[in-house]
Amino acid sequence: MPGANLRDARRRVRSVKNIQQITRAMKFVAASKLRRAQDRIFSARPYASRMLAVLNSVATRVDPAHHPLLVERDTDKIMLLVITADRGLCGAFNANIVRAAAKHIEDESTNKTISLTLVGRKGAEWFRRRPWPIRHEYVNIMSKVDFKYAQEIARSIIDYYAASELDAVHLAYNEFKSVIQQRVVVEPLLPIRRLETEQQPPVLLDYIYEQPPPIIFDHLLPRHVETQVFRAMLESEAAEHGARMTAMDSATRNAKEMIEKLTLHMNRIRQASITTEIIEIVSGADALKVARG
């Protein structure tokens, strides 16, 4: 029986060591991918931020009738674009975003129609089991974020909004803050917001357009939506790698602690087995002496 217990303990130690090797390798892979994802998001942020600021300013100055994406309507029909990961093993990364998205839907769903566009397999799997209607699913595209996917997603959103099938579009994703910190963000995407000013009515200087505003907006506003969707996908990609790196580092350290505990337990079993064998030998020798005496 002690031999069986010792074999089981050795088997458990080997299993945990194998898991530790896997988690350590996954940590290094995530760290390598994180560096590239950080470079991409740090390059995309200034352009997306400045574009949003300029278009907010433009939307404040122009007549909304110049373009459908500038028109603000009663928000009866809302779409929520939720960006999650395609894979797990990244801690609470996916759980946090779907929980925030579900809460946002519940807060907005009173007397309103809510629909979903889902990016990432984990979000799609979670929301399929819920009662909210899903318009589109985009899975297996977050392993390597490409601008063409952002264009495809943005085009469908723009078509729905221009056809008045939607009154507002909101965006839910994980924003990358650092390797150990991601922030869940739920923000409006459409319509393009106007700046709020303290002056009533606001006194603003208008732009001089070299082409008619509708022509400029037909090129500029769709690109703005594509850029914001792409930025959110890049944010989520970097945040996912950071979360996975942190989770795998924690798993590796936990495996090390478990190996130490199992090794101590295994040594105790072995020591007890040796002690039992010594006692049996000594007892046998004593019994032999008595029999001869």
Structure notes:
This protein has 293 residues and is of the alpha/beta class. A five-stranded mixed sheet has the order 3-2-1-4-5, with helices on both faces. The model has no long low-confidence stretch (mean pLDDT 85). It has a domain at 22-196 and 220-247: ATP synthase, F1 complex, gamma subunit (Pyruvate Kinase, Chain: A, domain 1, 3-Layer(aba) Sandwich). Strand 4 (168-178) and strand 5 (181-190) form a beta hairpin. The protein has five helices and five strands; from the N terminus they run H-E-H-E-H-E-H-E-E-H. Helix 1 packs antiparallel against helix 5 and helix 4 crosses helix 5 (213-292).
Search tags:
293 residues; alpha/beta; Pyruvate Kinase, Chain: A, domain 1; 5-stranded mixed beta sheet; 14% strand
Question: What is the fold's blueprint, element by element?
Answer:
Layout: H1 2-61, E1 77-83, H2 93-108, E2 113-119, H3 121-127, E3 134-138, H4 147-162, E4 168-178, E5 181-190, H5 213-292
Parallel strand pairs: 1-2, 1-4, 2-3
Antiparallel strand pairs: 4-5
Q: Specify the CATH homologous superfamily of the domain at 22-196 and 220-247.
A: ATP synthase, F1 complex, gamma subunit
Quick one: CATH class of the domain at 22-196 and 220-247? Alpha Beta
* Arrangement of strands in the largest sheet: 3-2-1-4-5
Strand content: 5-15%
Question: What is the gist of this entry?
Answer:
This protein is α/β, with parallel strands linked by helices and about 290 residues long. About 60% of the residues lie in helices and about 15% in strands. The protein has a five-stranded mixed β-sheet with strand order 3-2-1-4-5, sandwiched between helices.
